[in-house]
Automatic annotation (TrEMBL):
MF terms in GO: GTP binding; GTPase activity
SMART domains: RAB
Family listed: Belongs to the small GTPase superfamily. Rab family.
Compartments, as annotated in UniProt: Cytoplasm, Cytoskeleton, Cilium basal body
Keyword entries, A-Z: Cell projection, Cilium, Cilium biogenesis/degradation, Cytoplasm, Cytoskeleton, Exocytosis, GTP-binding, Nucleotide-binding, Protein transport, Transport
Chief place where the protein resides: cytoplasm
Record bears the keyword Nucleotidyltransferase: no
Any single biological process term in GO: exocytosis
Cited Pfam families: Ras
Protein name: Ciliogenesis and planar polarity effector 2
Organism: Poecilia mexicana
PROSITE patterns: RAB
Amino acid sequence: MMARAPPRAYIVPDWHRCKDSKEYFNKIIHKKNRKNFGLLESPVMPPHAAVDTLDYKIFISGKSGVGKTALAARLAGLNIPSVHHETTGIQTTVVYWPVKLRENGRVLFFRLQLWDCGENALRRFDHLLPSCKEQVDAVLFLFSFTDRTSFQDLSNQITKWTESTDCLVKVVVGTKFDLFMHCDVAERDVRKFQETWRLPVLHSGGEVSDGLGDVAPILNCLAENLWHQDCVRAGATGRQQQHETRTLP
């Protein structure tokens, strides 16, 4: 099944580079490093700059070893594990990301709760996958540029999630993009995949910079698609309510 990307840009691209964003991004950065937020913590804005926070649950899907835990750490500004260890259960990571809407200049904080679960744990314990799927808003489908089988498995992963619900934001991320000497997935294969599934395919890899440039494309893509999904749902709800009002005796 094909998925459609948002027809237009809802958020200001690369807003983190603009002067008027500093007041907001300074709330998630401390001494050039990202602040770590627990489940009950959040950025604190002054009264004159108070913003709404939108909560979303994101599941990270992919074969063992593609870098799910590493990507979650990268997006949150945490230390990336240097050695791979299979995640034994469910691990959650909270990421705050401010965006500015193009239409009205409104600023929002996206609170993304990233869910990561080891592939072997999902197979051994039947209750884990339903917990991961419950009230999920988006799925990051991961493959490694150094593991062709993980790329070939993408269609199976996407189909499984689409069977349960089609009301999901779906974004594909290729990890270990910096290991080009060991690349096992060609650009033409990625382009063909995009043409077939019509999903955004982003990449991740390399050293983590002090700034936000290495994570901004993925977080902005998630925010863009999540906001679009909310607008579609709000429109559908409005149309349903109008229909119910018209049909009342």
